[in-house]
Amino acid sequence: GLSAAAALSRHPSATGAHLRSTVALPPAFTAPLPAPSVLGPVSTSDGADRYEITQREATLEVLPGISTPMWTYGGTFPGPTIESRRGRPVIVTHHNELPVPTVVHLHGGRTPPAHDGYPTDLVLPAAWSGHGQHARSHGMADARAVVTDTRRAYEFPLDQRATMLWYHDHRMDFTAPAIWCGLAGLHVVRDDVEDALDLPRGDHEVPMMIADRAFDADGRLAYPALDPTLTGEPGVTGAYLAGVLGDVILVNGAPWPVHEVDTGVYRLRVLNGSNARHYELEAVAENGRPLPLIQIGADQGLLAAPVRHERLPVAPAERYDVLIDFGGVPVGSRVRLANRLGTGRTADVMQFHVVRRGARARIPDTLADDLPEWSRSRATVTRDLAFRAGRMNGRHGWLIDGRPFDPGRTDITTRLGDIEIWRLVADVHHPIHLHLVGFRVLSRGGAAPLPHDAGLKDTISLRPGESAEIITRFDGYRGRYLFHCHNAEHEDMGMMANLEIV
Ligand code: C2O
Ligand code: CU
Ligand code: CU
User: Fold this and answer.
1) What superfamily does domain 376-501 belong to in CATH?
2) Which residue among 147, 256, 281, 316 has the highest number of C-beta atoms inside a 10 angstrom radius?
């Protein structure tokens, strides 16, 4: 048979294949940018803030006038945003009223292993309660997989730098379709370091979950293979194998929205919540002049100093905290946020409409001074890890060092507190994510890191054929964690491994 790499080359893009919507799509820049709702705690006593989220089906109006059934956290897409303070524990109880088992992972969270959302640590559907047989008949014979609870209290210490995290489904083999169906939301952590900087806030701080989707003629979400593990080789389409790309760009769940702004400075908190699509963002004024995107933070919080970008690449699961200054833009004109990697309509993301004058704001020259600096000489272990296509159980898959994910196998054992250098190499585009820890990028392609590699990261975008070195310290908790490709289809097709901290 064909190797996975050969199968990929039959498709137009090595990073994925397009799904085409068959429903009529709306014109760009007409839908207002939604602000994801902020969830209120149900209690704030006993030293923790407690929240409740019901995972349920909901029919949402994503495209104007069209009904789209989705899987949701609390009935919305994106799910509700949780706002918290560094070091203040948060307990989120998830109730599963969906028809499928789920797993919640707080991406970027410094979370003990029991609450990190291991892919077989399931919350079963409420409709299954009392039916252990039902779980087994769905192929969950693994004892670890069979839990009786249809609700789960996830505890997050959040003893970590201020940044924007996100929570999403993480069930083994089914993460990609679950996120596609809507299981994703934001979680913002704040701290005193950030407060002292007096950054834009209130309506001048704009969370932006960018995600592509495709819709069928009835307005339902289109997706190529709902159950790749059961369909086997013929069901694993090239689109699935490479990663699923939609032709509609949503920001906070609205297609190509428009957002009214003043001539002040805005803080855009960007998450690429797409399964497989990479973006290269560029803000362009009506006169064709680019507006710099001034990066102040990375996945794991503020940089030491701002970094100006004319174009900013954003891989799946990465977050970029950027300031944009509309001060030089005439009132009444528009600024387009474009995607340089897109073609046709996927070359647009959203638009800012400058409608009034605003207060001038200062952009700080220095930001945070609490970034970890790990020198090469302090690393005790150097590991090589290859992220490449290959065969898994006789079909195409994505492998780490030649092996697909196995929840029963420990791939790497590391000692708590050790500093390690990982040398990563990729065949096609793979955004590699480590749970629990933040890391620094030491080198890329044998040369210095790129400007957007600055700061503390939890996801690094490896471009086709590229290698990179990252350095981190495995501290926080002992136990089993994951690292994986965050192309969600690659992750489901094996590109994930276990890291045991002892
Ligand atoms: Cu968002 Cu295991 O990841
Ligand atoms: Cu994660
Ligand atoms: Cu990948």
Assistant:
1) Cupredoxins -  blue copper proteins (2.60.40.420)
2) 316
